[in-house]
Structure formats: C-alpha cells, structure tokens
Amino acid sequence: MTQDRTPKDTTAKTSTAARRAVTMSPAEVAENRSRISRVVRDWNTAAVADRDAEIAAASQATADNSTAAAEMQAPPQDPANVTNSQRTNAEATTELTTEAIATNTPPAGSQPAAAFAPSDRLMAIIAPAMELTPTPPSSPSPPQSGRLQVTVLNTGQTISGMETQTASALVTPNNPAATATAGQQAPAPMVTNQTDEILARLAAANQRVAANSPRGAQGRSPLSDYTLGPMPPVQDEEPSTPLMHLHPDQVTDWVSTTTGRVLVRPFDTAATNPANHAAIAAEIMTAITDITGSNSVAVSIPLMIDNPLPRTRHPNTFLAYNLTPEQERILLDRGIWSSELTTFQVLPLNPPRPSFLFTLSGFTTLDADHATDLVRQVWQDDASAEFFTGLVEAAPEANRAATVDRIRAFIASMTTNLLDIRITGQIRTPHFNVYANGEVLANDNEWAAIRSYLRMRLYESMMHGRATASADFHCSLCHSVDHPRGLCPFPHLQGWRGGARNPPSDSNKTNRNKGKGRASYPFNQLGKRPPRRDRDDRNPGAGGSGAVGAN
For 395-528, where are the alpha helices, taking DSSP H only? Predict the structure, then answer.
C-alpha cells in the first residue's frame, strides 16, 4: 500500500485568531500590527526589568569590592573619543532596531518572510491585550547606558528571527564605555574613600614593618648605622706608615690593581694579630657592602715582610678593591667608619703627608697661643734661617723661588694644640702638639728634613721655661701618634659606636698608665711615686742613685 506523502495542510490547524488576522482589511492589519508591537515591547520590557535589577545589584556589589587603585588604573573612556570602529556589536544591534521602529522597515541584511503568522503560544499571550484601548507609541529614545536593550519585532521578521535578534540585544554588557554613543556622556565611576583608606593602611603597615626590621625602615639608609662626621684626623708618624712592614710583592700587587681601591686600617689592636685577619676581612667586606651597595668588593689581608726585626708589629692595613670611583669617593669622604660591627679608617693608596710634627713638653703655661708664639720665634731665628737657606740653595736654580714660597707657606701654617697630660694626683704637665701643612712642600724628603731639624731645636722662654720634643705617643685605639689612648677624641663623638678610651681589663698592666694618658717618666710603671730613699741610699758610694730614669 503506497503511503500518502502529500504535505499536510497546516493552514487548517491555525488558530481562530490567526484566521481572523488573515481575513482582516489592510487598515485593521496595520492597527493590529501596531498593537502587537506595543504589547511585545511592554512584555519584553517587564520581563527584562527584573533581570536588569539583578544585574545592577550584582554590578554594584562588584564595584564595592573593587579596590580604588584598580578603578584609577582603568578609568572609563571618554564617550566623546569613542569612534565608530570602537562601538560594540550590541550598539550596532540597538541602532538597527531603533531605526526599524522609526521607519517601520526591516533592518538591512534581514531576509523578508512571506507573512506574519504568530504561533498559538504567542497568541495566547497577546490575545487578551488585543482588547485593550490602544495608546500612541512612544518615540524611540537612545539606549541608557548600563541597561538591557529590547528589540521590537517588525512585520518582515519571523518568530525565530525575533528570538535571535532579541537574544543578541539581551547580552549587551553593562559597561558604560561600551554602550556610550557619540555625544552621550558615560557615567563617572563611583567615588569613595577607599583610596585614602587603603593608602593609609599601607603606610601604617610599612612603618610597623620598618620598626620591627633588624635593619630599620626599608627606606632607611645603611649609613645611619655609622657615626656621623666630621671626624678628627688620624696623625701618622710617616706618610707611608700604613704600608710599613708589608711584603714588597704584596705592595706591588696592590699598586697594580686597576679597579677602585682604598686602604682600610681597623681601629684597636685586634688587627695586629694575624689570627684575627680572616674575621676582620669579613667584617670589612660586610661594612663596605652596606655603605656603598657594592656586591663585588674584595679585601686583601696584609702579609708581613720576610725576616722582620725583633718586636716588629705585624702590619694592620688591609686593601679593599673592586670598587667604582663613586664608591671609592664615598668611603674616602668620611674617612672614619664606626658601627656596632666594626670601626676602621679609610685612606688612599698613596696617603698624604701628616700635619703633625712633634710634641713639646716643659713649658710652664697652659696657653696654646703663648706656645705658638714661642715656636714661631725659633722657626724664624738666625739658626733656622741658615737651615732654610741651605735647602733653597740645594734646589735647582730654576726651582729656588718656588722652594722659598713653599717654606714660607709651611711656616705660616704652623699651629699648636694643648695636650692636657696629668700625672698622679691630677698634677698637670702640659704638652703641646705642633702642626704644619706638609702638603705644601715638594716631597716627602723635603718634609722629613724640615721636621727633623725643627724637632731637634730647643724652645725656651724667659717667662715660660724650656721645652723640647718628647717621644711620640701611640694611641692603641685609632693609631694616631699625637695623643695617648686616654685622650683619644673619637670616644667623645656623639653617637660613637667604636671602642672605648680604656683598653680591655685583661690588657698588660705595665701599659695601663699609657692608656690613661699618664706620664710615667717621674714615676714607676704602676703610676706611684717610688719609695723615699735614705741618705745613705743617695750616696753614690753606697750604690744608690738619686735619679729615677724615665721609662
């Protein structure tokens, strides 16, 4: 039996409302079409309103949880600068839909259908509204930013086309920058106090971390761990004292170093023991890294000359190298670096000549101006003039005028300084250090010749007694030769972090008086007066001696 494949008549199954729509006059069709458009628009608007409210609530929650920094980094784009190429697909759909409503023509690119045939489901929804009194349609308005867009069905579109276009309009993002059109202002982002609050909390957290950090604040300079300057000068006996007793081959290697380098001499006496050198070198590297920020600094440990003389001290000067010129300048500018970790002096590889010449003792005055006048009188007397004339005549004839100028500048730069030495019972025995600018002289040999001559002179006055040059001191803290450790000026500096004036308690008792700045020449090594001798002891024949030798 052959099956009947004739297409079924779908027209017979259409609803009564559909048949009525087909038999209506053209005027009635136009009126019903207008009604249907309004009803569909109102229905879609009511359905979308709830979803719009939900999306707006979710967007508000998201905006509240966003940080102010993120809002500032991504400000909304000015709608006036939005070009046609930057508009979203949703905006284009909205414009096409609005144009279709206004002109009652299908959008460009849409396929025309044979006739509008609403389904039973659609008619069941809109049929009750057909009996309502029609109201004039409102003029289409531009889409509001941040709201869902609704597409109204036109005559030439099928139901499936309406669903597709409406779905495309419903996914328009809630983004003011995406939905803004030319000439329309996008809403400004919500301004809150979150920015100030977050920045304030961040600043407070940084302060707390800085207070609890071992190195202090993150922005704190490591230089604050070191005693501030200006620092007193350290006076050496000779210009090359820091390099004395070093192995000549090591000195050659140090001089041949092409990178930035400086001499480093630690304070106190630990560096005279070679067993401490590795630990001291590590402390120097750590300190220089903190001061300069260098991660390539290296330290060379001093090596002693071969076959040194008895009682020769081991050299205590290290070399820090692999420095940049700027790092070298930073270290040399302050000269003395003192922290809780270490304290050391920084010198150039070719140190300058010291300004200290010698110490005079024997004057019966505490006035440094009187001492300065007495010293200048001796330097300008006939004997000194004859000595300086010999220096000038020994120079090449072309250099004699310059030699005279150098000697005059050296004499004019002379100053004295009171060194308040006291002996047992707080008895004052004033000493005066004599200084002059040795850098004005031509070389070390000229400087040494002048110092040796002036040191041998007798300085006497009818009013203030006679003074001669005494042996140089040696401060075991800073290694200067113009004062004992007991009168070292460094421990008196504000914020000093280095060693103290007094040496450790387990130091050699025979040197205790030197650390306190006590002169031992009229007394024994314990700083006490020798016992009184009987008359027979003073008699040379009895083997006694009335004089106590200076130590």
Answer: 400-412, 444-456, 512-515
| Nearest of 303, 322, 316, 321 to residue 262 by alpha carbon | 321
The residues near 520 (Cβ < 8 Å, ≥ 6 apart) are 513, 514, 527, 550, 551
pLDDT tens figures, 460-487: 988 988 999 999 999 999 999 999 999 9
Residue 7 predicted with pLDDT over 80: no
- Rounded percentage of the chain residues whose pLDDT exceeds 70: 58
Q: Looking at residue 328, what is its pLDDT? A: 95
CA dist 363 and 383 (Å) reads 21
Question: Residue 288 carries which side chain, given as an amino acid letter?
Answer: I
**CA–CA separation, 243 and 303 (whole Å):** 11
Q: Tokens representing 416?
A: 């004295």
Residues 6+ apart with CB under 8 A from 434: 356, 357, 358, 359, 360, 375, 414, 415, 416, 454
Pairing of strands 260-266, 343-347: antiparallel
Mean per-residue pLDDT for 6-21? 50
Query: Which pLDDT belongs to residue 225?
Result: 85
User: Among 251-260, 381-390, 499-508, 528-537, which is the least confidently predicted range?
Assistant: 528-537
Spatial CB neighbours of 73, under 8 Å, sequence gap ≥ 6: none
Given a cut of 80, is residue 525 above it in pLDDT?
A: no
Residue that wins the pLDDT comparison between 22 and 365: 365
The residue type of 56 is A
Dist. CA 62–CA 56, nearest whole Å: 10
Do 435 and 414 contact (CB within 8 A), yes or no?
yes
CB distance 152 to 101 below 8 Å: yes
Report CA-CA distances (Å) from 308 to 140, 271, 313, 318: 108, 17, 9, 19
Q: Number of helices (H) and strands (E) in the chain: give both, helices first.
A: 17, 12
Q: Which amino acid is at 535?
A: R
**Nearest C-alpha neighbor of 366 from the set 431, 455, 435, 458:** 431
Give me the residue label for tokens 């609050």: 197
For the chain, what's the residue count?
A: 551
Quote the longest CA-to-CA distance of the chain: 171
- Sequence-distant (≥ 6) Cβ neighbours of residue 483 within 8 angstroms: 419, 433, 473, 475, 489, 517
Map tokens 């019903």 to a residue. Answer: 32
Distance CA 360, CA 421 (A): 12
Q: Is the dihedral of CA 327, 328, 334, 339 positive or negative?
A: positive
- In this predicted structure, the answer to whether residue 18 has a pLDDT above a threshold of 70 is no
The pLDDT of residue 522 is 39
Q: Are 308 and 283 in contact (CB under 8 A)?
A: no
Instruction: Please report, in angstroms and rounded to a whole number, the separation of the first and last CA atoms in the chain.
Output: 148
Specify the range with the lowest mean pLDDT, choosing from 217-226, 293-302, 365-374.
217-226
Torsion of CA 349, 355, 356, 358, to 10 degrees: 120
The reported pTM is 0.53
Strands 318-323 and 298-300: antiparallel
| Whole-number Cα distances in Å, 116 to 163, 386, 444 | 15, 133, 116
Distance CA 250, CA 243 (A): 10
